[in-house]
Amino acid sequence: MAEYIPSTSKWVADQVELYESSGGTEGTTLRDTGLPVIIVTNTGRKTGAIRKTPLMRVADGENYVLVASKGGAPAHPVWYHNLKADPNVMIQDRAKVQEMRVREIEDSSERQRLWELAVAAYPPYAEYQERTDRLIPVFIAEPV
Fold it and tell me: 78: closest CA among 9, 1, 3, 2?
């Protein structure tokens, strides 16, 4: 079994720990926003280690929309590259944990629909896109 390496960001590591140790009953929102998050577990492409990231909960039926915004930073978040290298993930949504497979959305009409869902769930995504020259990647996570 691969080693789990917590995020170097203390608040992220702390949130993942609280979320998982409580069985998905605590730590389920983004800081003080009250907006729900999920935990995405994936494999690090360089280390092979287990990585865990809280992301905004954007549901599309039984699927989840994952937005690689990094707050509008000029570069993609590290987890983006991990998912491109290995699309198999585990997603925890409160108490529910399931194996899923992700794919980056390239089709413009599908991406637009999912982007609108994401912005409706977390309006700052629109501002993040205005802040950066890169097109913020959108993934869909589907049950295996």
Answer: 9
In this structure, are residues 137 and 68 in contact, taking their beta carbons and an 8 Å threshold? Answer: yes
**Does residue 4 form part of some domain?**
no
Instruction: Check which CATH number belongs to the domain holding 70 and give it.
Output: 2.30.110.10
What tokens were used for 54? 């809280």
What would the two tokens of residue 48 be? 């092979």
Tokens coding 5 = 């390496």
60-97, pLDDT tens digit by residue? Answer: 999 999 999 999 999 999 999 999 999 999 999 999 99
For residue 84, give the nearest of 101, 69, 99 by alpha carbon: 101
5 found inside a domain:
no
pTM of the model: 0.96
Contact 37, 54 (CB under 8 A): yes
Amino acid making up residue 121: A
Paired strand residues for 138? 67
**Strand order of the sheet with strand 138-143?**
50-56, 37-43, 88-93, 96-104, 138-143, 63-67, 59-60
